[in-house]
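As the next step, I selected for study a record pairing a protein sequence with its backbone structure tokens, which the following lines show:
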Amino acid sequence: MKDSRALSVVTIGGKGSSLSSASVFAVANGLAQVRVDSSALDKLSQNKPSCSEKFQISFAKWLTREEVRAYLVVLLNKLLLSSTGIRPLIPNLISQALNSGVALDSEIPSFDAIDVCKEELVVLEKSSATLDGICAILDHQSLALSTVADAVAALSCEALRAKKTAFDLIDSGDGFTAKDEVGVASDMKVLHANSSFVDKVEVESVSEIPKVHGKFREIVRLVHGNTRVVLNSTVQVGEAGVGKAMATTVSPLALALWCLAESSWCRGKLNIDSITNDSVKTSLLEMFIDKCPTLESLKDNYRLVLDAIMGKEYVKLLHEVNALLVKVREVIAWEAMGAWISLERVDPSKKPETNEGNAYVEKKSEKKKKGLGKGTAVVMQLIKEQIQSNLGDVVDGQELTEKHAAEFCKLLDPKAPQFDSLLKKVKDIVESNESRRLPKLPKGTRDFANEQMVVREKAFSIIKSVFKRHGATALDTPVFELRETLMGKYGEDSKLIYDLADQGGELCSLRYDLTVPFARYMAMNGLSSFKRYQIDKVYRRDNPSKGRYREFYQCDFDIAGQYETMGPDFEVVRILTELLDELDVGDYELSFVDEGL
């Protein structure tokens, strides 16, 4: 199918502009032309350095056309970022080469040797534009693949009638939750909302979706963050370790891709096995074995990645990861095809029935939609429209089945015109579906269910009874105080105080502890002595970590006033021992640090 999309334009070198992976990918694949911002060219035209060196822009023969063009886009941006000592000549040559070779069947650009100055030679020789360009392609494609792979996996869950217990994950808010796993599980629940197909059979390759897809999502995000930086950084003379740093970023992506592919391949095979029509199942299985990348071939690709790492061939490394990604996408396309055929119950070797005017066929189709989840039903319909509209004049038989397979591979290819609508639709489903994601807790907070509250209330009751036995009275203070009351009382920890927005002329903050509010109460009421206890929540604007929360209980017992020396200290120790005894914590030992003892 001819690409009907109009060519977009990517402007490079504008004031405050930055180069994105999406822009690099678009230009690299002939989906966009480049335009050098006029202000950047005006700035370069002021440079008239002497040129005493010869240089020819060249590339490794094994690089793909896409990778070469990505390198040129990034090199163009690096030249414009450097600006000092750079003439307009080389940026113009690169932009002309990119724009004249937009057609997908055009040859890889070639350049003659040209005279360059010292500053230009530094950028041309020392920049990591090849690494950064291929990394941009990986970044863009893996971001898209992460979303699409989740949607395809959701279809497999429906086709296999798989149990969805693995998706019952929640973010506990204590900093120990794998957020990407929870995110994948949440998206799956949105896609499966109201499905009557899922939750029947235990399937291992479905149960591992949150972990495998969650880890892939996590690594993709790390690659994305790194790529944003390297695409827009200037060339640093004498900078070392660039290749190793890139390998450290990208090599986990290769492993995550392999795990994603293995999981998808298993589900794809199971999807075909679930097809009820034996003749369709047999023919599709034969084609799957023959056409779909095998696990062994994927292992071979991964070995090439490892060889490149060990050989310190870092451009080769990114090239091999890119090749692996293409194969993984093909595996996921086969998984999608198997799930779609299983759920639609169609014969890919025959042209689809026309529903128009056929009430029985329309009713049957509507019934199938009702059984699917709200999200997966939309994805299924979109796939149906895209695939069947592109089958053309191919006659029934093996050729038509192969055409189906080719269209599924094309549907999941970011270069294909129909890919954007699929990606947008999936994102819209998980972000705007009326069956919204489950709400989650803020970081550093916890819910306490009935079982936990029974234990807590009993403990609080024991603690309060001991305090009262020693003559203490209860005190309750507001959860927030005037900011001026709290500030300056905690030294460096004052930065951890939660400030509240001004709601009526007073600047307030959440209480950091119970001691300062107690002191404020004493001063405000003119008290010279007071024995009080308070068990309440306090708040810290801290980074949650193991055992550290932003909201938690403090238990305070204070004796204020004039008393005999060490008298209150001994009473506090006695109260502590009574508390530990009555709470039945087991054996304990009290230690004292006091130079006066």
About this structure: The chain is about 55% helix and 5% strand. Residues 178 and 195 are 26 Å apart (CA to CA). Confidence is low (pLDDT under 50) at residues 355-364. The beta strands are 8-12, 32-36, 53-55, 114-116, 473-474, 480-482, 508-510, 530-539, 551-560.
